[in-house]
Amino acid sequence: MSIYTIVLLFLFHSRKRKFYITTMVSLSFILCCVLVSSCAYATIVSHDGRAITIDGHRRVLLSGSIHYPRSTTEMWPDLIKKGKEGGLDAIETYVFWNAHEPTRRQYDFSGNLDLIRFLKTIQNEGMYGVLRIGPYVCAEWNYGGFPVWLHNMPGMEFRTTNTAFMNEMQNFTTMIVEMVKKEKLFASQGGPIILAQIENEYGNVIGSYGEAGKAYIQWCANMANSLDVGVPWIMCQQDDAPQPMLNTCNGYYCDNFSPNNPNTPKMWTENWTGWYKNWGGKDPHRTTEDVAFAVARFFQKEGTFQNYYMYHGGTNFDRTAGGPYITTTYDYDAPLDEFGNLNQPKYGHLKQLHDVLHAMEKTLTYGNISTVDFGNLVTATVYQTEERSSCFIGNVNETSDAKINFQGTFYDVPAWSVSILPDCKTETYNTAKINTQTSVMVKKANEAENEPSTLKWSWRPENIDSVLLKGKGESTMRQLFDQKVVSNDESDYLWYMTTVNLKEQDPVLGKNMSLRINSTAHVLHAFVNGQHIGNYRVENGKFHYVFEQDAKFNPGANVITLLSITVGLPNYGAFFENVPAGITGPVFIIGRNGDETIVKDLSTHKWSYKTGLSGFENQLFSSESPSTWSAPLGSEPVVVDLLGLGKGTAWINGNNIGRYWPAFLSDIDGDNTLVLFEEIGGNPSLVNFQTIGVGSVCANVYEKNVLELSCNGKPISAIKFASFGNPGGDCGSFEKGTCEASNNAAAILTQECVGKEKCSIDVSEDKFGAAECGALAKRLAVEAIC
Ligand code: GAL
What we know:
Residues 701-786 form the SUEL-type lectin domain. By secondary structure, this protein is α+β, with helices and mostly antiparallel strands. 20% of the residues lie in helices and 31% in strands. The chain contains 16 helices and 40 strands. Helix 1 runs antiparallel to helix 2 and helix 9 (288-300) runs parallel beside helix 10. Beta-D-galactopyranose is lined by residues 137-140, 200-201, 250, 270, 276.
């Protein structure tokens, strides 16, 4: 401080004033650079009770989660660009430990695991990054991101003060931080990353770990701090986060969250835009209005940083899906769909909200705050600086619309909505009034030239004779073991085999015999003497069950062969790492003699184990022979519809695109090979490739807004419906209402939009003519065909 004062005094008395002022500016710049170590473009990210500050300015920050391994490297620039165009400042990603360190101390950052490339793509787009290292991430990712070898280390206990665990966690975290530092990717070094995260939602489970849990979270904080990243660290859902860790909120709504320290700004790391899907479950949906409501409400109530989880969910390729039973699609009903298309109206309605919030940045982050309570859960919040004031009117009543007089003007605020008035007078946005088009996505058959409508298939059965008839595997143990322990999670498939010698006079032998298996296998197939006696799939989440099936046993040697299949290891909850998977027993042969039941426990028999299937081992998926086809024309994403099939794994051009348990997608070009492993049986003749794109678009927009219609790069081919007045119905079934404008709306839209990739329409009486709708709010409803 004193240095500056002296220099200034000196300057003001200098005759060569101009020259010295320039010198002073560069001198202070150099001093700054020295202070933040890395110079040039270093950005100082800090925080105060109100907001994250960047180079001393409080910011309104909007961020979206895009996980790099859930898309292909080719998709990254487009996804990130769409995030920026959607009004985001930052992209958030987790770091996936088990993907990067599949074997202890052997690392993989290739292909879509190239974290540095992903971060640089964010940087090239001029956006900020939020790096959630975890390294426990949950994320519906296999085993929450923990490598299974970690579980199998001696004396290991996860997420507590266990030395072996802490060493491994520190080793991985340090390595990631060093990699990122080496590339100068932290904001303190001139890079894009403004925030880093350690652990993940530990506060939700800390109670189960007792005192050790508290000590562990303190250790996490110290360890992270010692890594000296130069940007703030966050801990989500951690209301005892030790300073200087910033605790943040995750959930569908975080307006009522308050951080544990008055100096921590109110931040929301996960606003769930939808949800993940389980096999057999429904496609989750969260309405656009509700997501927008939650965001606007958060900013009404002093929030300043908000991240969408997910902004683009993507795909759980290969065996990365968590579980059990989490699907390969991780679409999440996010603003960008699984394929990277705009999920409209969610994307557009939120983009408009982001623009409004950004325009109010200064008032929101520096303004004095006051609220007016109108009763019945309606409140107005005024943010006021000397130059300007901005207002929110929130109606948290779920059922009743409100009409209020605020500062002399009447406002209609629909139930469960927030209106934003950037100048406290004009409502420019209401979360429940969508003025963005709805895009209806359609899948179309592959239109590549000369492509036959069905694919040609060649078959090869899985060679299972040796396991079925001889019961011989790779290792033997006189115990039934957890699948994770035997296989290290190298495959979904583990064979458990044993041979039982039954003497002719063994009392268990007789009629009505059965095999009873206490199992935690996610899917089970059972064979006795080469015969498939049955299989089992879990219903209603009961992964601990008893499977019993009639079976025929003979005097002499009987081979029992059980195939245990995992469908994603658990990723959430206290001690989830110890949830058993596989055939943990006991296993019994049951005999019946009249009323008497004879039980033979096989649990301590000699069990033989074999991991994996021979087709996987022999890499059938990379062979030239199977079905090939030409890539569909155009640039729309390609999906493979596995109609008619049961359950298995699919590969495109040798890349494992994931488990199927019915339909799938990929990014493909040129001549392509599809390989399927089918484990239940099915008919591949219906399998086909399709492109996915916008089929039609609809809108239902209030007067005094501008409607943007777009077919995502394709021309709009026709206007099927248009009416300005009070049209009714929904997309696909719009109808004219009781009042309608004098001009022909369809003709106007046809002229302005048909043949164009997008068009912009002023929704007003000037454009469509007067409509006698009385007090009703006028709207334009349109359905256009792409
Ligand atoms: C959170 C977790 C995320 C993700 C989400 C649900 O609890 O932090 O990683 O699992 O739930 O999609």
